[in-house]
Amino acid sequence: MSIIAQMAVSGALMGLVYALIAYGFQLTYATSKSINFGQGELVMVSAFFTLTLITLGLPYWLVVPGGLLFGAALGLFVERAGVRLALEQKSEGWILLTIILGLFLFSVAENVWGRDDRPFPTPISHEPIRVLGVDVTPVELSVAIGVFAIMGVIEVFKRQTLLGKAFEAVSADRDAGELMGISATHTVMLSYALSGVVAAVAGILVSPITTVGPTMASALVLKAFSVAVVAGLESGFGVVAVGMFLGALESIASYYLGSGWREVPGLLLLILALAVRPTGVFGKAIIRKV
Amino acid sequence: MIRLLASLSMFGLALPAFAADTVKLAITGPFTGGSAPMGASMRDGAKLAITEINAAGGIQVGSVKMKIDVIERDDEAKNERGALIAQELAAMPDLSGVIGSVNTGVVMAGDRHLQEKGITKIITPAAGSASMTQWVGKAQDLSIFRFAAHDGIQAAMVVEEGINRKFTKVAILHDATNYGVSGRDDLQREIKKQGDKLQVVATEKFNIGDKDMTAQLLRAKSGGAQAILIWAIGPELAAVANGIAKLGMTAPLIGGWTLSMSNFIDNAGKNGNGALMPQTFIEDPITPKVKAFIDAYHKTYNVKRIPSAVSAAQGYDAVYIFAAAVKQAGSPDTHKIKAALEDLKDPVPGVIAVWKQPYSKWDPKNVETHEAFRRENAVIGMVQDGKVVFAHEEDRKRLAALAKIP
After folding, report:
1. Min CA distance, B311 vs chain A (Å)?
2. Which domains, from first to last, does chain B contain?
């Protein structure tokens, strides 16, 4: 029993990182019906940038906001370079452009920071603590806290502030929003900046566990896609639930079926979800009037 | 365009004539990525030896002195890159030899191209058994030599260490590469050979890039493993060490020599302390020659610690053995060098040992004829506070005696 609990908890904590990256897809999809296929590279480059700030000797209370601002700037860069023109022309060009930007950032990272995996120092302890018979490290708990904190802040922002309401309005109906005097372009920019911040948070949270390297996010982002597809692209609660479930399922499978079978249940789940609920478990079926 | 082609072809024609007074030596290995500490240290150690030889005027070949001309190729630890590089090298008309390769998969993919042309290659530091055993019973004549303590030796030492420490239950963990899988087979064979004193309670694998080893370790833990025998490379080894600490396990890691890689030691931090592995060289100035080598490496490459000391020392000694063969052959011709390597007359003083007849004529039934290292050349090293030290103090004297210049 305690083994199942241990596997489920370790897996679910990693699953929260999938959820956070998937949440980044949701933010931009809501406002612009586009997603950044290079989101994993945003995670990775932000982590490298933050690591550079740490090695420069800056204190942590400066390093973390620095990393987040850098993430926001990267998000804006992706929006300007890869998404805006494609959206204006109502084309699907953003798919290819965001993939290309991701490859570009990957090459930049390889050339600037090298191809090696590096440890990411953190003030949070790696010493395991025992909670209800399960070993977890404070670093892993910090992932959970960080994920819930950033998602909570963004959800409150969307619901309680004027800017957030504009965000929701454009998400609901872009044309109607524009008629009410909301700049859709600015809202899309905002969503990409937020998505960049979310990517940076994911990078900073996961790096102490996974180390920092150019390929650090490639596996994570694939899982995040699965989570986004299974949960649907509308529900923030949905990605958290599905992310934790997928993470736990993976690690339980690798224990009981053997480590080679780790990915299989997750992929079956993905196929099942697409077959039964193509809009996602938590997605809403949209009725489009013509 | 035509002019460009013309100048290119002229350059091509001029090249062999230009190269005739140098010995062309290729150095290949992963200089980037997870295996880079081994590849880059091997390259840098080899280049240190080449710089020394060239500074002294070069190798005495017949009546002239010839300098060594280095060709570097990064195989990125990828099998397909390794095959391409081997094809390119095999097509060079005046190549004297190749030193390098870290990854068993790369060796398996590339070496047959060199063997077809009879190009002399010294494999170092790749240790996977399959690199050499693939030729047993197949090649009547072989131009591939190895300069590393192969996994057969290493697995025997690892199992022996486990038995000596009075363990009875162990788990085997390995990565899914050619290196990891052949390491697992070697370990299982050795456990049987040494009288089945260790009971294997779990055999688990993981992939390159995996960071979460909880499942594999829990299986080891629930089986009651007292030690983890492991075959993998730096980053994943570190993930395992960190997982062991997280689960509050006390089982030590005993495994292949890769547990001495800097990217294991750095990424595991204090969780890496106590890891045990076979080593052919330890960064400890046990003789004046070893001290000179370590100091020169630190100074030339501006580091405080050699990323993979074993690789650096093996690269260094391999170049000297190669140079001795060129001198004895009296020619930069790769076939003559191969013949000389199989029957080296003079002992070659290196930093690992004084090498007396490291190789003999290839016997298709006996792989040891092209293996330089014996059990006596290896010791058990241990990670301690970011460094690899001798695990058994008496080994220090033993290695120093081997490296003593008579």
Report:
1. 18
2. 2-149+287-373 (3.40.50.2300), 152-279+380-403 (3.40.50.2300)
- Read off the pLDDT of residues B282-294 as tens digits, 9 standing for 90 and up: 998 888 899 999 9
Instruction: Using CA coordinates, name the residue in chain B closest to A125.
Output: B246
What pLDDT digit, counting tens, does each position of B147-179 carry?
Answer: 999 888 999 999 999 999 999 999 999 998 888
Rounded to an integer, what distance in angstroms lies between the CA atom of residue B115 and that of residue B135? 10
For A217, A221, A271, A274, B397, the CA distances from A230, given in Å and listed in that order, are 20, 14, 9, 7, 63
Dihedral sign, Cα of residue B137, residue B138, residue B140, residue B145: negative
Summarised one tens digit per residue, pLDDT across range A242-276 is 999 999 998 888 888 877 788 888 888 889 888 88
Structure tokens at B120: 């002399």
Across the interface, of B36, B211, B235, the residue whose CB is closest to A209 is: B211
ipTM of the complex: 0.72
Whether B235 and chain A come into contact, CB under 8 Å, resolves to: yes
- Residue B219 in contact with partner chain A when CB distance is under 8 A: yes
pLDDT band at residue A82 under the 50/70/90 scheme:
confident
Closest CB from A14, A114, A135 relative to B248: A135
| Ordered DSSP codes for B363-383 | BTTBGGGGB---GGG-EEEEE
The residue among B38, B175, B212, B240 with the most chain A CBs within 10 A of its CB, best to mutate, is B212
Token readout for A168 is 């929701």
pLDDT at A290 over 70: no
Inter-chain residue contact B36 with A116, CB threshold 8 Å: yes
Chain A contact for B238 (CB, 8 A cutoff): yes
Instruction: Please tell me the total number of residues recorded for chain A in this structure.
Output: 290
Nearest C-alpha in B relative to A216:
B209
Alpha-carbon distance A224 to A219, whole Å?
Answer: 9
* pLDDT band per the 50, 70, 90 thresholds, residue B18: very low
pTM over 0.80: no
